[in-house]
Amino acid sequence: MKNIVTVQDAVTAFADFMEPTAAELDAIEQEIPLILAEVDLLDAQIITLDRTPNELDARRIRRARNRVLAARRDLVNRTSDAADGAA
Length: 87
Known about the structure:
Blueprint: H1 7-12, H2 22-47, H3 55-86
């Protein structure tokens, strides 16, 4: 029995377009606070999956949601300020 493999993966595995550009890496770096806040929210929600949330759990989720909203606000303000400065 012959193994059938795709040649395209071997050809494109090390292509230049597969790596993130410097601009993409900068955008990811700017989004890190939002990503971390969303991970904290997800962690708080995962804790309550197998039980009824108590007051402490509800407070933890509420605070995590507030951190996500604040991180989104800060990110939008930074990107709009950068866009205004570039214009």
